[in-house]
Amino acid sequence: MKYIYFITLLILASAALGSAQLDGLSSTCQNTLTQFLGDKNINNCFPFSAITPLATTTTIPDQNTLKTAADAICAKPKCSDNLVSTTLNQFKTSCQTDISNNQTLAQLVNVALSLYSPMRDSICYKNSTGGYCFIESEAAAEQILQSAPKGQNPAFTFAGAQKNQVCTPCNKAIFNTFFNYQNVNPSAFSDVQNATGKNINDVKGAIEGKCGQNFIDGKVGDSTEDPQKFQTESANQKSSAASLVANPVNFVVLVGSLLAML
Ligand SMILES: *[C@@H]1O[C@H](CO)[C@@H](O)[C@H](O)[C@H]1NC(C)=O
Ligand SMILES: *[C@@H]1O[C@H](CO)[C@@H](O)[C@H](O)[C@H]1NC(C)=O
Ligand SMILES: *[C@@H]1O[C@H](CO)[C@@H](O)[C@H](O)[C@H]1NC(C)=O
């Protein structure tokens, strides 16, 4: 089983695209992707040229690489919804065969385009010490997983995790960004393996169980708030870690790093 980090996917997909790992795709799809890479409008808001040399799809990039990529992405204006949906439609038309044949790169780009908006927002949130939220969240998720007994169901691992590792201002910003996006675009996650509407609702319930009802209240909040203070404020919220165990798929969308299996 190979997990890749969901938010990082936007970075990974760009890296793969730019490093011309297009072999194996149909020629129609290859042509369209090559055209995207050279498209002036896309490059105005998405820095392929800065990101592509940084990473490969085979490993999760290290923190410095992620930071450099995030710096480049967040320095540009966000791509307009209109540009993203036009690009996505064009991609789906040209690469339909490749997507249904489970070509990894085609699926990666498909998800990266479908979830561009919340991913881009989430990549750019900063924490109280000026670091990137998603890097903080991924490091915490990794730590939680690594300290677990080998082979333990990840849902149990997270159920037992410290509240202050999961219920952070950064994760609140990231979770609400994704859930708000899903509310407005109910089919946004449909191309993500295992992320069905029911599974996503289970995840929501699980996070609320862990972090209290107000955690997923639709408000992104202030990711730069002091996590200590944030914990104190939310300390008296009802929570029951048990609901985290509801569904192993919780793991797929948990802790902002939102893992996807490819
Ligand atoms: C692609 O993956 C799906 C789900 O894992 C599977 O049902 C389908 O048979 C696969 N298609 C091909 C062409 O391998
Ligand atoms: C903020 O995020 C950075 C990583 O981007 C991390 O190294 C740092 O520890 C985080 N700060 C806090 C207070 O968690
Ligand atoms: C996704 O669902 C399939 C089929 O139900 C399952 O085999 C696979 O382990 C699931 N993946 C994750 C990451 O839970």
Automatic annotation (TrEMBL):
InterPro entries: DUF7729. Residues 26-217 form the DUF7729 domain. Transmembrane segments: none annotated. Pfam families: DUF7729. It comes from the Eukaryota. Residues 1-20 form the signal peptide. Keywords: Signal. PANTHER family: SPARK DOMAIN-CONTAINING PROTEIN. This is DUF7729 domain-containing protein. The lineage of its organism: Eukaryota, Fungi, Fungi incertae sedis, Mucoromycota, Glomeromycotina.
